[in-house]
Amino acid sequence: MKYEIKQYLKITKSTEVFNQGDIEILKELLEDLQHNKKTSYSLIEEAVDGKLAGFTLFGRTPLTEFAWDIYWLIVGKEFQGQGIGKALLKKTEDLIKLKTPIATIRLETSSREKYSAARGLYKRLKFEEVGTLSNFYAEGDDMIIFYKDIHCLEK
């Protein structure tokens, strides 16, 4: 981690998408990453002029041979629309490819309108929408599951 935890939280809050409970969970994961040398989490950052612009927090999916979960993809509000989310996902995929010759990646996101740009990005980057869990986060707020099989893309 190149930046202080408060900087990751600050840009996450700037998106105006996440609630306080979400922020607390992110803080716990970042603290684990910072203090636990055996953590299963990995972090990739993107900076603009030395300022943290975005990050991905991801890790191996427990009890699987080659599956990965991207838990957080954050691009600060002032940096959105500049290709940073795309660059972060590309770097994340590249690192995953280095660690496992075959890899599948899963993302989960909300069906709320605030998440529509993220869902569009995932689709443009060839993540397939594979499922929906109705009312998962709250009434009327479904979980949408995206999946990408990197091995299949390289055939």
Molecular structure report:
By secondary structure, the protein is α+β, with helices and mostly antiparallel strands. The chain has helices at residues 5-14, 20-35, 84-99, 116-124, 150-153, and strands spanning 41-48, 51-60, 67-75, 104-110, 128-138, 141-149. The chain is globular and about 35 Å long. A six-stranded mixed beta sheet has the order 1-2-3-4-6-5, sandwiched between helices. Helix 1 runs antiparallel to helix 2. The longest helix has 16 residues, at 20-35. It has one domain (5-153): Aminopeptidase.
Entry keywords:
single chain; alpha+beta; 155 residues; 35% strand; 6-stranded mixed sheet; 35% helix; Aminopeptidase
Gist of the model:
The protein has 155 residues and is of the alpha+beta class. Helices cover 35% and strands 35% of the residues.
